Amino acid sequence: MSGATSEPLLRVEELTVTFDGPRGDVDVVRELSFALEPGGSLGIVGESGSGKSMTSLAVLGLLPAGARRTGRISLSGRELTALTERQLRRVRGDRVAMVFQDPLSSLNPYYTVGAQIAEAYRAHRQRATRREARRVAVEAMERVHIDDAARRVDHYPHQFSGGMRQRVMIAMALCTEPDLLIADEPTTALDVTVQAQILRLLTEVRAETGAGLVLITHDLAVVSEMTDEVLVMRQGECVERATAERLFSDPRHPYTRALLDAVPRLDDEVGELRSVDEGGAR
Amino acid sequence: MARFLVSRLAGVVLILLLVCLFTFGVFFVLSPDPAVQICGKNCTPELIERIRDNLGLDEPLLTQFLTFVSGLFAGRTYGVGESATHCAAPCLGYSFQSSQPVWEMITDRLPVSVTVAVGAAVLWLLVGVVGGLVGALKRGTWWDRSAMVVALAGISIPNYVFALLLQYVLVVELEWLPFPQAVPFSEDPTRWFQNYLMPWIVLAFAYASVYARLTRANVIDTLEENYVRTARAKGLPGRLVIRRHALRPALTPVVTIFGMDFAGLLGGALITETVFGLNGVGKMTADSIARNDQPVIMGVTLLAAAFVVVGNVVVDLVYTALDPRVRVRSA
């Protein structure tokens, strides 16, 4: 999208996220490095607690209180860790937008969805009028296929279904035309049928805008369809990084194999669901 | 919306009727014979009998209750012939001790109680909410700790202790305020203000402490909500994140308890009014209890209940406006 092709869109080097625990510091992410080319897609998979979400929050400096990060994070060659809060604020939502896991709790129940989308737009287009921001909100809602967007723009989050709320979140992320979309478990809180719709929407939106995607999930099937490259995390560390294709055909790390084995299959003869530990990760 | 309002108002009427029945039961059935009390010192059995007859005390209880309720709407006349006394339409009863209808006694004193309540409310909302906000946003700092220590003191120090202490320091020792003395606003606004200042501070201190702690806890909770993280991820400036996304959800519950507290206070601040010698509904209640003037106690109880019940409905309506989730669907 922007500038020289030699710079990756996102480069993370030796990222470590540390929490102050009651019994000393705990590293939830340890020396993680990866890069994403402009328009590229990367899946980060792992179990709960493997540090995937913290990685995504660390990129935009949104870590919860009590967490610290070290390492380098650069966006198109610009070092994000060196930015002031004010400078970082201009990157958030504008060049890098996020979609979170639970769309109900991630939308403020007190404001209409239109107001919340318009707010994201106006945060970065200071000269935009209210009317213009509203029009952008309606357009963004139309782009994510919310029917009757002109009327729905004035509805509150609780008046939408789970899938529609996630569409609103995606519309909110899109309205500023970001270069990078970070989706943190975007389908985990949704029904299986709705999951597929949201994933299709994300693919469609990326094809339109050319935005890069970091997709965080615990679902291997999702990354196999959605991303070119996959990074497998375990206990804060990267255990394997490969193209999606190779990862599934030829998993190198025992943990990755265990993860793949744990995916239930219809033709499985064992009859019992395998957990990762039984699968021989160690 | 209209249906909601009608059903709520029907509820109000029902509750007030129940309160009526309850107070009537407690004061007229369980307490000592009103006729004996009215009769006074030079009492004869014949006199008591006549009073009973005049007041309808020998009637069945249900008849007495219905007479009382109808008096609320239509007024009633006590006694017959020469000694008859009329009690006009919202007749809450008649105080034979002060020879005045209860309604009149209350309306005479209500402005004082309302002044006390409104002034204190403004003060406690301001101090409580700002204090709680500072505590939440500067959590763990010196500001936060001192605000919360003061709030703890406000909750634990009894009203009358603080009132007497304040009076001693401000009036006797420092002489910053003159000795409290009732002066109408129109006569001397400064004096009027000085007269109400201490009651306001005393009442506000206790309430503000509760509000500060509540506000602090609510704001801290709200700041951890996912939608606050979303607001930050959108790139909103910090103060907008707090103002728009944290304050409104955090302060909505404060509105709820404010409505209840304020309505409760309109029924009179017993201790504060008594300590500062303010002739409001609260002091009247305290005096009536001391004299066992039952019609007055009953009238005040009913009035206070009415304030709380109506206040509750107002809170519901305000809440509907503030929180879109409780809005009744119009479609």
Describe the structure in your own words.
Chain A: It is found in: Cell membrane. Chain A: Keywords: ATP-binding, Cell membrane, Membrane, Nucleotide-binding, Transport. Chain A: It comes from Streptomyces zhaozhouensis. Chain A: Belongs to the ABC transporter superfamily. The complex is a heterodimer of chains A (282) and B (331). With 282 residues, chain A is an alpha/beta fold. Chain A folds into two domains: 8-95 and 179-263, P-loop containing nucleotide triphosphate hydrolases (Rossmann fold, 3-Layer(aba) Sandwich), CATH 3.40.50.300; 103-177, no CATH class. Chain A contains eleven helices and ten strands. In chain A, helix 4 crosses helix 5 (130-143). The longest helix of chain A is centred in the last third of the chain and has 18 residues, at 192-209. The radius of gyration of chain A is 19 Å and the shape is globular. In chain A, 42% of the residues are buried. Chain B folds into two domains: 15-91, no CATH class; 103-326, MetI-like fold. In chain B, helix 5 (102-137) packs antiparallel against helix 6 (142-156), helix 5 runs antiparallel to helix 10 (238-266) and helix 8 (189-223) packs across helix 10 (238-266). Chain B is globular. The chains are: A alpha/beta (282), B mainly alpha (331). The interface between A and B is medium-sized, with 30 and 22 residues.
